[in-house]
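This follows on from our talk about sequence and fold. Go ahead and set the record down below:
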Amino acid sequence: MNMARWKKRVTGLLVHPIMIVAASFGLFPFLWALSSSFKGQRELYTTLPALFPHYFTLENYRFVLAGAGANQLLNLYRNSIFVTINSVVLTVIIVSLAGYALARLRFWGRDAIFGLFIVLMFLPAAGTLMAQYELMHKLHLRNSLIGLILLYSGGGGINLFLMRQVFLGIPAELEDAARIDGASDLRICFQIMMPLATSGMVLVAIMQFIAIWGEYIVCLTMIDTADKLTLSAGLGSILFTSPALGEISSYGVTATSVLLTAMPVVLVFIFLQRWFIKGAVEGLKI
């Protein structure tokens, strides 16, 4: 017992520093942007910048939230919320129904269809962008938020795989008992299986929310007008101005706008991380 405890401590001493160093690479840009958002012009452009500001200021937030560019930022926020929420809801519905069908129902070509979606998981998004562009153009869905929602909701090989694994992990005895009682496939799906697969559905919703909220290249390709862009694609086009100082393009203002863009994703993960871990554990059982 003492030997096992000693090995556990040694492993912790070796693994924890490596994990801390790896995590610092991901956290440092966020901490730097957070620090820069509270710095003034002089401190931002000093020869030796510091991680923590010596003099805290809210001027950058005032320019972003109350300047002339605030209306543009609000419009981008509105577009992102509209596209992301609708895409998440539509994706969860589609992959939940498809995952149930591929896991529980028996029909010709089921495994071939699932295999095709697995292959699509390994195709890079940029590799299919031209085909998607032509398809959206012929369907008259380009430069449209509705078209963007439908495009984001399509595909979803990873989400489909996770939901299928979640349904496969549910005991078949529950389904058999429901069929003995005369329940149809639809009733079994919606009243028995879906409630038991809630953690997987929340996982898919979180992953889809993060992916769509920060998506850049597809939105920039499919949307032509600035008033229909989402935050990630249109943030760079905002020109923040102040009546007193005119155009403001400092690094601090940019860092502030980026932080406001990333904040919804951070909050979603913080409040739903328990469901994220539970859904990942259930969905990755093979």
Observations:
- The chain is about 70% helix and 0% strand.
